[in-house]
Design a protein that fits this description.
The protein is α/β, with parallel strands linked by helices. Helix content is about 45%, strand content about 10%. It has helices at about 20-30, 40-45, 50-55, 70-80, 100-105, 115-125, 145-160, 180, 190-200, 215-220, 230-235, 235-240, 245-250, 255-275, 280, 295-305, 315-325, 330-335; strands at about 10, 35, 40, 65-70, 90-95, 130-135, 165, 205, 225-230. It has an eight-stranded parallel beta barrel, surrounded by six helices. Helix 6 packs parallel to helix 7 and helix 16 (about 295-305) runs antiparallel to helix 17 (about 315-325). The protein starts with 8 loop residues before the first strand and ends with a helix.
Length: about 350
């Protein structure tokens, strides 16, 4: 079961980004924040390579599995299968606007069918040993969010869902691509805050456009239960996650980037010894030293060398040299290989 309230700060599920290596890395920065998998379709869980899709390191807890789908029976079967993996939460995607998701009639399209979503989550809840949650938009296309969102929350919560992560933008299913849908529709944080006041019994997290811990703290101060951060947590992981535990959760101390790198070394070595490639891990770590002298060289060296056949720990050492040269003596000592 989940400890305390990890949803107070979470890292959004992001396709091609929040894989198991990214999540292991983020966990070294914050012990408390809730992490999410990339979206996995229910059909893939049932018919695909389950171990590849569902395996994760125990260190990643607390961890939520995000499923995509619109068939209650299929989603329930996927939940039963995933139960053996021990996720802390199962989340239904009602917010992704990609063409592939639309063609499958799930993701953000489901904002148009709250009764179907209620049937889906009811089936999932019946099959799940852990909490089932929903990630949604405030509406799609010509819908009026002030009308659509409360009806969606009321209908889906009546089926048993008590926690929602709400991306505070509409999704335009026609006319905007997924990337544009993350930036062009205007944010409406006040609407999400109003929903918390209208549904005080629900735990609501806001997602979309949050770029700093200070912004997250301000939204929490408005009464929201949680803040979900996506691209900023990926591109500037240290800035977002290193101080999350003391500032958001009131636990522990801020992470040290050199100590985080040392904690990643055994994970990298295991991956390489199993035939993996260095860049599969280091591509997620480019922002570890963001804002520090030597950070540009760190990014450049990893970007240029980590994808080469046979690249190994020596590439990390080369990328660290400019940072060591610029670091204070105490940090330089911490930067030495463990």
């Amino acid at each position: 079961m989940l400890k305390t309230q990890p949803y107070r700060l979470s890292v959004a599920p992001m396709m091609d980004w929040t894989d198991r290596h990214c999540r292991f890395f983020h966990r070294q920065l914050s012990r408390e924040a809730l992490l999410y998998t990339e979206m996995v379709t229910a059909a893939a869980v049932i018919h695909g390579p389950r171990a590849r899709l569902l395996d994760f390191d125990a260190a990643e807890h607390p961890l939520a599995l995000q499923l995509g789908g619109a068939d209650p029976a299929e989603l329930a079967e996927a939940v039963r299968i995933a139960a053996d993996w021990g996720y802390d939460e199962i989340n239904l995607n009602c917010g992704c606007p990609s063409d592939r998701v639309q063609s499958g009639c799930f993701g953000a399209v489901l904002m148009e069918s709250p009764a179907l979503v209620a049937d889906c989550v009811a089936a999932m809840i019946a099959a799940a040993p852990v909490e089932v949650t929903v990630k949604c938009r405030i509406g799609v296309d010509e819908q009026v969010p002030e009308e659509v969102l409360p009806r969606f929350l009321e209908t889906v919560s009546a089926a048993g869902v008590g926690r929602f992560a709400i991306h505070a933008r509409k999704a335009w299913l026609q006319g905007l691509n997924p990337r544009q849908n993350r930036t062009i529709p205007p944010l409406d944080y006040p609407l999400v805050i109003a929903m918390k006041r209208a549904f005080p019994h629900l735990r609501l997290s806001v997602n979309g456009g949050v770029g700093s811990l200070a912004e997250a703290e301000a939204l929490l101060a408005e009464g929201l239960d949680g803040v979900m951060i996506g691209r900023a947590a990926y591109h500037e992981p240290f800035a977002i996650l290193a101080e999350a535990d003391p500032r958001i959760f009131g636990t522990g101390a801020a992470a040290d980037p050199f100590a985080v790198l040392d904690a990643m070394r055994p994970h990298i070595e295991r991956h390489l010894s199993g035939g993996g490639r260095l860049h599969q891990i280091t591509r997620h770590m480019l922002g570890l030293f963001h804002g520090r002298p030597g950070a540009r060289a760190w990014r450049r060296i990893l970007s240029e060398r980590a994808s080469a056949p046979g690249a190994g720990p020596e590439v990390l050492e080369a990328a660290l040299e400019p940072l060591r040269a610029a670091a204070p003596a105490s940090a330089g000592a911490a930067a030495a290989p463990g």
